[in-house]
Specification:
It is built from 3 helices and 6 strands; from the N terminus they run H-H-E-E-H-E-E-E-E. By secondary structure, the protein is an alpha+beta fold.
C-alpha cells in the first residue's frame, strides 16, 4: 500500500522527530516509560520494559499496558502521514496472544489504509524472545487540533 502524500519528503524527517518529541512530552509517558521511533511514513516502533509494577493479581502484565503501547504504535504510524492535525483514536480492537511477565517489549505500528479523514493502522507486541504477545487494529480520525499548537511538537525553523 502506498501512504498518502500529506507529508512532503523534505518535511518528513522534521515531522517524525517532532512526533517523537510530542510522545516523550506526554505526562502519561512518565508512568509508562517508553521510547517512540517513527521509522518511515506509516511505520512506528515503541520500546519499553514490562515489570511487576504493571502486574494484575495473577502475576502477569495487566492489559492496560498492552492497550496503551498498541494504541500508541498504531496511532503514531497513522499520524506520521498527517503533518497538520492531531489524530484521535475512534476505535481499537485488541487481541492478547500470550501473557507477559517481565522484560523488554517492542510495539510495531503500521498504517493500513485511509488517506483523508479516517486512517486504519495495526500494531503488534513482541517480547524479548521474539514471540508475539498481543496485536490490535485501530481507527483514527483527523481532529481540529493543530499539531503545531501542541506543547512538545516542535519542528526546526
Amino acid at each position: 500500500m502506498t501512504p498518502p502524500d500529506d507529508v512532503s519528503a523534505d518535511g518528513q524527517h522534521a515531522h517524525f522527530r517532532a512526533l517523537e518529541q510530542l510522545y516523550a512530552s506526554a505526562p502519561v509517558n512518565q508512568i509508562f516509560e517508553s521510547q517512540l521511533e517513527v521509522l518511515e511514513p506509516g511505520r512506528s516502533r515503541i520500546s519499553f520494559t514490562a515489570n511487576e509494577r504493571f502486574f494484575h493479581a495473577a502475576g502477569a502484565t495487566h492489559g492496560t499496558l498492552y492497550f496503551k503501547m498498541l494504541d500508541d504504535a498504531a496511532f503514531y504510524a497513522a499520524n506520521s502521514l498527517v503533518s497538520d492535525r492531531f489524530l484521535l483514536t475512534t476505535g481499537f480492537n485488541l487481541h492478547f496472544t500470550k501473557p507477559l511477565r517481565e522484560g523488554k517489549v517492542v510495539a510495531e505500528g503500521r498504517w493500513i489504509s485511509g488517506k483523508r479523514r479516517v486512517f486504519i493502522a495495526e500494531a503488534h507486541l513482541v517480547d524479548e524472545e521474539g514471540e508475539e504477545i498481543g496485536r490490535g487494529t485501530g481507527t483514527f480520525m483527523r481532529s481540529h487540533i493543530a499539531l503545531s499548537g501542541l506543547p512538545g511538537y516542535h519542528q526546526p525553523d
